[in-house]
């Protein structure tokens, strides 16, 4: 929503393209929060803290984590095909092997380093994605 507001302020137009372009980064940022919540599941549950992960369970939360990461890699080709972004946007897909590696690692156990590793992926993806939009 902030993207839409910033775009409107600068152009005077309402356009959903800025919202669509923000989806991949937004989904990766949320994936950091989800994996951190999965890591804290036992503590949160025993403390009576009702996070989304506590409510839906660790398995479903991990499926959400996978879906959020998948969205970050499905969206760029869709945006390019729809003409919302230039094909350079596909450059961010070079981080896909790292994303798949994290999913494999965390499917066995979610370590304390899960959120920082996912944040690192988000930063690298975000830099490449941002540069690709600027080209």
Description:
By secondary structure, the chain is mainly α. It has a single domain (23-134), classed as Up-down Bundle (Four Helix Bundle (Hemerythrin (Met), subunit A)). The protein has helices spanning 2-11, 17-39, 41-47, 52-56, 58-81, 96-108, 114-134. Helix 2 runs antiparallel to helix 7 (114-134), helix 5 runs antiparallel to helix 6 and helix 6 (96-108) runs antiparallel to helix 7. The protein is globular. The mean pLDDT is 92.
CATH topology: Four Helix Bundle (Hemerythrin (Met), subunit A)
Q: β content, as a range?
A: under 5%
Helical content stands at over 70%
Distance between the termini: 24 Å
Total number of distinct structural domains: 1
Radius of gyration: 16 Å
Structural class: mainly alpha
CATH class designation: Mainly Alpha
Tally of separate helices: 7
Using the alpha-carbon principal axes, give the shape. Answer: globular
* Mean pLDDT across every amino acid position: 92
In short:
The protein is 76% helix and 0% strand. It is mainly alpha-helical and 135 residues long.
Layout: helices, strands, pairs:
Elements: H1 2-11, H2 17-39, H3 41-47, H4 52-56, H5 58-81, H6 96-108, H7 114-134
Provide key terms for this protein.
single chain, 135 residues, mainly alpha, Four Helix Bundle (Hemerythrin (Met), subunit A), 7 helices
């Amino acid at each position: 929503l902030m993207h839409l507001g910033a775009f409107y302020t600068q152009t005077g137009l309402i356009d959903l393209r800025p919202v669509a372009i923000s989806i991949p980064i937004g989904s990766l940022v949320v994936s950091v929060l989800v994996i951190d919540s999965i890591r804290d599941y036992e503590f949160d549950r025993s403390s009576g803290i009702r996070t989304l992960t506590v409510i839906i369970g660790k398995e479903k939360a991990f499926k959400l984590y996978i879906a959020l990461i998948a969205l970050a890699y499905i969206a760029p080709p869709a945006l390019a095909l729809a003409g919302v972004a230039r094909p350079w946007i596909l450059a961010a897909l070079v981080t896909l092997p790292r994303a798949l590696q994290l999913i494999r690692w965390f499917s066995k156990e979610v370590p304390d380093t899960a959120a920082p590793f996912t944040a690192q992926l988000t930063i690298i993806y975000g830099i490449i994605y941002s540069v690709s939009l600027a080209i």
